[in-house]
Structure formats: structure tokens, C-alpha cells
Amino acid sequence: MATHDRKACSAHLVLVAPPISNTQAAGITDDDQNVIDRLRRSHFYMICGRPKASFSKIEESKEGLLEIEIKLDSGASSSGFLHIERMDFFKRAPDEFKLQVQANKDSLYVYLERDQVFKATPDGLLMRRGRKQSLVTGFDNYREMMTFDLLYAGIAKKNQDSYSRLIEKGHKARMDILAAEDQRSPGARVSDETYLLLFEVEPLILASFSGTGELDDEDLNFSFDYHRIIADAEKAVINAFKPKYNKQLYLNYPKGADGLYEQGYDGYSYSIAEGFAFNTAYGTIKGARDSEECLLSNYADFISVNGDKVTLNISGKDFNITIDDSQLEN
Fold it and tell me: What is the pTM of this model?
């Protein structure tokens, strides 16, 4: 067995679906089984506020390219392009085919003959842009458009998931928010401005060794307790940001019986691997990822825990970002 120097966990919060407004959530039925199955992958959720986003323009600028404008009810807007030839269906499409695009202010659909091959909401397109997906370009102020007021953070226990905890059954904090929050835009419905963000947590376990001993199976055991990470992530977010509607603030964090404290980690951290930002009582917290596949990013703020010390690390302030002049993309 080799001498263990350090074992750490870097955990990334990743959305299982685009942000869902409370109005959209109320419209989910048993017929939407594919949507429900996707939402059940989540055990960590946030309830947030932001003006509603809508499509204000969708038109073909040239063959295979849609020019799109998205507006928030607050007046902020963003413009970009959707590249149809970069969609998954295009790789298996016949040499000649007919596409049809249908849209309203809330949804965009692309049909190949009679088959729906693509669907997106305004927030779904902006989420794809934040993930650096190649089929969406432009929308350079996507993070500004995807800045939410963080109102509540919570988790589902082992025998639940975020869908059953937050949507399928009554949820007190969600009801309190709908009853107490003011309109963010004149004439808006609070239900349209209240968003449910459902995350799964993707951990990366890192270990370093020194000495002359040989590595054995115990050294190479990188297994983890997912629900301990979920429980610890909730406490870290609430302790650091103190969302308005969370009553339990976990002031003794990182200590706790169900988290990662004294579980063999020398350090652990949490970041949001989405191109979003969150307004909190302690300023705006940014998420980011380097690419669609790479969740790590120097542009993401993160919470780190070392022993009993909890630190909120702000990108560009608490750690340096090396900028490659040839890649100055947001």
C-alpha cells in the first residue's frame, strides 16, 4: 500500500434539464414520462427568480441557419443563431429532405417531415450556449440573460428525487415563494418568474501518493457515497449564500453527520458547471464550464472546504485566470 498524501473531491452541479418555470412545472402530466424520467435524475434543486424569457424573433437568415432573438420581460435581450446542420438528426438525414420550423414565444420546434427532431425553450437555447454547444452561436451575453435570484436550495433524500420532492408533491418553500415574492416585471405572473433548477452532482475524486510502496486495490478505490455528496453540497450552498427562504442555515458547516466531514477527504469543493449566475445576499456567483464535455473551468466561482475552513472563491479575484488571446470567447 502506498503512502496517501491527499484525497480530494471536486463536485460539479449540472442541470438535468433547462430551468422550468413554476407555470411549466404545473403543466407536467403523466403523459410527459420522458420529461419526468429526466427530472428524476436530480437530487439537488434550487428555486430562483428572474423575469420571463421569450422568443421575440425567429427567422431563417440563410439555408440551415435560424436567426433568433430572446428577450426578458425586464427588457434585456440577446441575439444569436441556431445551426440546423449541427443537430444530431442531420447526421442520419437522407440526401433530400424537407424541414419545417414552428415556434411561438415559449417554444421552438423543428420537424423532419412529420417527425419532431428538435425542441427548445428560450432558456434551453441559452443553456446550450452556456455549455458551449456548437449548434448555438452568438448570444454573447448569455450569462447576463441567465442570472437568477437564488431564493431556496434543497435536496431530496435517498428514497426520493427532485421531481417527487419539488414538483409531484406540495413543497412549502415553493408555495411560500409564490405567495410572498413581488413581480419582477410589470403585469407579470410570479408563477412565470419563479424557476425550478434541478441538478445532479458529478464528482471528480482525486488522490496523490508518495513513497516507495506499491499501489494496491485499496489505494485505487475511488468509490464515493453520492447521497453524502448531495447532503454536503446542500449545506455548503446554504451556508455560503444563505438563500432568502431557507430557514436552516447550517451555521456549523462543514461539521455534520451526513456529509463529507471526517470521511477521509483532505479537501472538497463545489461549483456550478453551467453558464449561469446567481444573485445572493453576498454578491453574484458565477457558474461556467470549459466546453460541452469538460466541466472544469477557471471562470466558475466555487466553494472549497479544507478541514474546518470554508472559503468562497471568486473567479478573477481569489484565483488568477490565464487568458489565451486567441480564445477570447465568453
Answer: 0.90
